[in-house]
Specification:
The structure is a homodimer. By secondary structure, chain A is of the alpha/beta class. The first copy, chain A, folds into three domains: about 10-50, Orthogonal Bundle (434 Repressor (Amino-terminal Domain)), CATH 1.10.260; about 65-155 and about 290-315, Response regulator (Rossmann fold, 3-Layer(aba) Sandwich), CATH 3.40.50.2300; about 160-290, Response regulator (Rossmann fold). Chain A is built from eleven helices and 14 strands. Chain A has helices at about 10-15, 20-30, 35-50, 55-60, 75-90, 105-120, 160-170, 190-205, 220-230, 245-260, 290-305, and strands at about 65-70, 95-100, 125, 140-145, 155, 180-185, 210-215, 230, 235, 240-245, 270-275, 285-290, 315, 320. Chain A has a six-stranded parallel sheet with strand order 2-1-3-4-5-13, with helices on both faces. A six-stranded mixed sheet of chain A has the order 7-6-10-11-12-14, with helices on both faces. In chain A, a hairpin with a 2-residue loop joins strand 8 and strand 9. Chains A and B meet through helix 4, helix 5, strand 2, helix 6 and helix 10 of A and helix 4, helix 5, strand 2, helix 6 and helix 10 of B. Strand 2 of chain A pairs antiparallel with strand 2 of chain B. The structure holds a DNA duplex.
Chain lengths: ~325, ~325
DNA sequence: TTGTAAGCGTTATCAC
DNA sequence: GTGATAACGCTTACAA
């Protein structure tokens, strides 16, 4: 797989145009140059099919106009929407996106970091789980959803507020027997706060809130067991369930409909993420919507910030509630 | 956003290790070198935190170990699965992926091509719609799902075979009044063959096959009109529908359930793509599954093929049928 | 084997 | 405003 051996270079353009090398460079950097010179250079470049070699340029300028995006996965609706938003945002600022997938593997995460560092990206936006990730402290880094350290800015949705919002909605919709369900507990992170926020509201009202949090590996069976053990004469002990993600909510809904209780007539369900099936379609379920576009914008903003001495260490973005058929309204 | 001004270079490592520059280079290229030299160099590199600058390397070697992936979008389940597979496959071969999103905009497609050409990627894998896309003929290019020209290899699913398969399944499941539905007709491409294949089977059996193909902009309303105008006393004129994508099938299903006919009891539905809601979950609907992983592998294979003189101009990969709840079995 | 030096395609600093 | 020329960090003959 050999690339063109003799792609035209600035030197060729200079020769063709009969001007000096420096002049050609100036033309391609929008530095003032005599009008007829510019014309000659542009003509020659077009004729030769010349393209700037941004590698050579980067070597000189120490800037590559590229950023790495490190994500566990891109098929999960939330991650894919995030990837799309970040990629678009970078592109809008004329940055290329180098995409690295880690499959939640801490070692792969470290390898990705290495790789993109060698590639001299101008910065990294990462959603990673390795608590002891080593990254060049001189390379701008923005962490999404995970808190790293004081000097690595983290941008996340307002997970605590989202949890509160879910509880308030459920209250408003008449629920009095709440349940919180969570799976795939990862390293301690921003996501924990969804439960904290949810629980705080019920506590304040003096209402007991049930809760089942499962570890990664346990699968979904325990949820089914839990639910069916809380059925009494075809009636579920809960009338409002908050699931830590839309993905979980969808599965729980399926379980419930199998078990008997109807959604949303007998039990209402709220998820978290606000992902959609297909672009332009509705939500999977009633949900707390993460501001994915703003998440992306903010991350890129922070990443490209010239002055890195006074960055916030955490930016929390507001979430919204959206009905999606699993609540009564 | 300034990168570290004084990242250690080979020169620094050489000085630190007390060896010549060339020796350091050899160590990092696994070229034999005295054992104690190697050790000294490695030690020095670790101490300084040295990282190869792959830009400088690429400048010299004319190889960047990176490929561009150009896609319309990454939130659509099919595209996101494809992106993930391609990215993983490239990564397995130590290639970086530069992701460019075009939003189906022919001009954006051209801009992406420009951009990645300037970045001197080693090749491009593109799923594009611009029929007159200009790409450097010396740059390896593989087109997914669209046929370009004789000298640009295209890899696609066996769309014709998939159409046949859908028809055969429907027949096998007892359907006798088939309908084909398609939306978002793009430029003529591989996708057209789904209908060709589907139709051919019915024609062969002497069965009439109804068909409604809509243009991009018309939206979904005409489908609803069509369906309801083909209802007679609560009964639909069709008992088997083949939709050009899963996305369409899901929407049609929703329409049908609103209109009256039950899926799959009264009418069976087959989609195309084989995408899933969440990783590890079932399909959206009964469907013809595209071999996404093989699509990705093949594309990367072809892209990285050293000998570009004898590449196939089209590789068709086999599809499979998978039940997903919208057919009776 | 190890060291030296000439580029790779740019940009940037100068004199002109 | 223009044109040589020296880097940038690396690979690679080729000389030692």
């Amino acid at each position: 797989m050999k690339r063109k051996e003799n792609a035209p270079t600035m030197k060729d353009v200079a020769r063709e145009a009969g001007v000096a090398l420096g002049t050609v460079s100036k033309v391609f950097n929008s530095i003032p140059v005599g009008e007829d010179y510019r014309r000659r250079v542009e003509e020659a470049a077009r004729k030769l099919g010349y393209q700037v070699n941004s590698y050579a340029r980067g070597l000189k300028t120490n800037k590559t106009c590229s950023a790495a995006l490190i994500l566990p996965d891109i098929t999960t609706p939330f991650f894919s929407a995030l990837a799309q938003a970040v990629c678009q945002e970078l592109s809008a600022r004329r940055y290329k996106t180098i995409l690295s997938l880690t499959a939640f593997d801490p070692q792969a995460e470290q390898r990705c970091i290495q790789m993109v560092q060698q590639n001299k990206v101008d910065g990294i936006i990462g959603l990673t789980y390795n608590p002891e990730l080593k990254v060049d402290p001189n390379l701008p880094y923005v962490s999404i959803d995970r808190h790293f350290s004081r000097d690595v800015p983290c941008v996340a949705s307002d997970n605590f507020g989202g949890g509160q919002l879910a509880a308030e909605k459920l209250l408003e919709l008449g629920c009095t027997r709440p349940l919180f369900l969570r799976s795939w507990a990862e390293v301690p992170g921003e996501t924990d706060k969804r439960w904290d926020g949810f629980a705080s509201v019920w506590r304040q009202r003096g209402i007991d809130c049930a809760c089942l949090q499962l570890n990664d590996a346990e699968g979904l069976a325990p949820f089914r067991d839990f639910l069916s053990s809380h059925m009494d004469g075809g009636r579920l002990a809960f009338d409002g369930i908050f699931c830590v993600t839309d993905a979980l909510a969808v599965r729980i809904r399926a379980m419930l409909e199998e078990l008997g209780p109807r959604v949303p007539e007998d039990v209402q369900l709220i998820g978290f993420d606000g992902t959609r099936r297909f672009a332009g379609e509705g939500f999977y379920c009633s949900t707390i919507v993460q501001p994915i576009t703003r998440l992306a914008e903010t991350s890129v903003d922070l990443l490209l910030q010239e002055d890195r001495s006074s960055l916030p260490s955490l930016v929390c973005l507001p979430v919204q509630y959206a009905p999606g058929g699993t609540t009564r309204e």
